[in-house]
């Protein structure tokens, strides 16, 4: 199993943010350190799933030394995040959405480093998890 370096950042009045230097645009956050690590695993899995769906190459993880040699990365705390590349087979579906909602989904996904599918999967999983709690 591959592991990517996630960088955790925390400002005094913010949640725990996580970014992936090897995967620009893949960011997430959690209200606690444990929540941030869980969200990091989920964001990484969804991003990799999107790369696979789009037929794009999955980049090799950089070493800790490579990541930390960049001064911009030194303000974060490095954690290893497992990449679940052996995801279940993705199934194409046809859904109908109001045009303005689809535009909002696409705008949010692009701004936060997701594919449309990845964002919808994450939103559905979060909704189902929240309702089960």
UniProtKB/TrEMBL annotation:
CDD domains listed in its UniProt record: RHH_NikR_HicB-like (cd22231)
Database matches in Gene3D superfamilies: 3.30.160.250, Met repressor-like (1.10.1220.10)
SUPFAM superfamilies reported for this sequence: Ribbon-helix-helix, TTHA1013/TTHA0281-like
Superkingdom per UniProt: Bacteria
Record's signal peptide: none
Domain HicB-like antitoxin of toxin-antitoxin system: 4-124
Name of the protein described by the UniProt record: Type II toxin-antitoxin system HicB family antitoxin
Provenance organism: Bradyrhizobium ontarionense
